[in-house]
Amino acid sequence: MSAPVIPKTQKAVIFEKNGGKLEYKDIPVPVPKANELLINVKYSGVCHTDLHAWKGDWPLPTKLPLVGGHEGAGVVVAMGENVKGWKIGDYAGIKWLNGSCMACEYCELSNESNCPDADLSGYTHDGSFQQYATADAVQAARIPAGTDLAEVAPILCAGITVYKALKSANIRAGEWVAISGACGGLGSLAIQYATAMGYRVLGIDGGEEKAKLFKELGGEIFIDFTKSKDIVGDILKATNGGAHGVINVSVSEAAIEASTRYVRANGTVVLVGLPGGAYCKSEVFSHVVRSISIVGSYVGNRADTREALDFFSRGLVKSPIVIAPLSDLPEIFDKMEKGQIVGRYVVDTSK
């Protein structure tokens, strides 16, 4: 394939300071380093983490100025001289983990996301809210040719994240998994992965629209927190003793605390959502007597990425997406802050 023509400038959404103006404007196209791919980003999912990066409310400083985004799906158009195993025209994905040292204890054990020198797309490395972005060739996701790039974009963070969380819950086919925050961007994918993995799925969220989506995605029992007068009791009854595993993608501290009470004895509470400054509280006597586990699950590694993408490629997982122009990102963030998003927004970088 002949080398594509790469422009000098491109459209992007960038901000100069945390919480500052989100500017849709022309910026230079980056030049890939020796170990990097240059990817022509076609679509990028919009994640709640992108909102935190913009606001700067996590205890990890962002690169400034910053182009956010870490669910970018596109085409390789250039690469550094040390890159192997890729070719121009390949489909590639930009993930939250852009790169790591590959030499420390964590990287040796395939826990690259815990690397002290991890480079994070849309946080410490300019991300996918631009038409051309760079990605470490080792960590970039390999997307099969012919894949719908808009549909696959959310898999690159939301999909991989919930798939890893479900693996971390240590539950077996036929057992109950409760998903707190079931019909947002993460939860809507968690429902499908859980169903494909053979689990019985209970979802907690609010409103008729989300109840309808939950059923459409294959969920079994929906608990509407806006209507339930006893969420813990309702879940214990519905599951005949509690969920074997809980995936907390909700950013409500109260919802996280409640999950420690409706998880089954010997079950696992998995923390995924990252509400700024929140704590997970569990009453110690009950925690010990019921022998429950509380674990944190961060983003998946390269194997998790491959496996999560395979579920998508086989048609077992579908992203419930709304496609919008990249220039609409400020409005999308506003809806996200107000909790008005059902499913996942994906931005088209050409608009």
From TrEMBL:
UniProt keyword annotations, A-Z: Metal-binding, NAD, Oxidoreductase, Zinc
Required cofactor names: Zn(2+)
Instruction: Give the enzyme's main class according to its UniProt record, as a single word.
Output: oxidoreductase
Q: Which GO terms describe its biological process?
A: amino acid catabolic process to alcohol via Ehrlich pathway
InterPro entries in the cross-refs: ADH-like_C, ADH-like_N, ADH_Zn_CS, ER, GroES-like_sf, NAD(P)-bd_dom_sf
Q: Which PROSITE patterns match?
A: ADH_ZINC
For the Enoyl reductase (ER) domain, which residue ranges apply?
Answer: 19-347
One molecular function GO term is: zinc ion binding
Query: Among its keywords, does the record have Zinc?
Result: yes
The Enzyme Commission number assigned here is: 1.1.1.1
Q: Does the keyword Zinc apply?
A: yes
Record's catalysed reaction(s)? a primary alcohol + NAD(+) = an aldehyde + NADH + H(+)
**Which domain of life does the protein's organism represent?**
Eukaryota
A GO cellular component annotated for this chain's UniProt record is: cytoplasm
Q: Which family does it belong to?
A: Belongs to the zinc-containing alcohol dehydrogenase family.
Q: Under which name does UniProt file this protein? A: alcohol dehydrogenase
Species, as recorded = Arxiozyma heterogenica
Lineage at the top is: Eukaryota, Fungi, Dikarya, Ascomycota, Saccharomycotina
